[in-house]
Amino acid sequence: AGSDLQVFGDHYFTGATHKNPQVRAESNHLLRRCLAVVPTRPGKGDIKRYSEQLKAGLDDGDAGVRESAAECLGTLSKLVTAKVLDPFLEGVDKIKMDKVNEHAERATIRLKAAPKPQPAASAPMSRARPPGSAAPGSRAPAPAARGGPAAPEPTGVSANLPPHIRAKLEASARAAAIKKAQREGYPIDDLLPANDPPPPPATAQAPPAKRPAAATAPVVRKPPPGGAKGKPAAAKDVGETIKMRFANDESLDERIASALPASVLAGFDNSVWKARMEAMDELKEFLGDQAAGGTSVHPEIVIRQLARKPGWKESNFQVNARAFQIIEWMASEESLDFTTGAAALSVPPLVERLGDIKLKAPAASALAAIAERYSFKLVAGLATEPIRNQKSPKVLADCIAWLDTQLLEFGTRGLALRPLVSMVKEVGLQSSNAQTRARAVSFMGTLRRAIGVAVMDLVDDLNPQLVQLLEAEFDKVGSQPMPEPIRAQRSLAGSDVGGASSGGGAASGGAVGDDPMDDLFPRQDLHALVGPGIYKQLGDSNWKERKAGLDAIQGAFDSANHRILPNISGDLYTALKQRLQDANKNLITVTLGLLAALSTDSGAAQPPNIRIVALSTIQCLADKKPQLRAAAVAALTAWANATPASVEQAVLPAVPSALADISPELRLSLLQWLADVLAPRHAKGARLPDLSSLISPLFVCLQDRNADVRKQAQRVLELTVICCGFEAVHDACEMQLRGAAKASVAPMIEEFRHAIGAASAAGGGADAGL
Question: Residue 235: CB partners within 8 Å, gap ≥ 6?
Answer without folding.
Answer: 242, 344, 381, 382
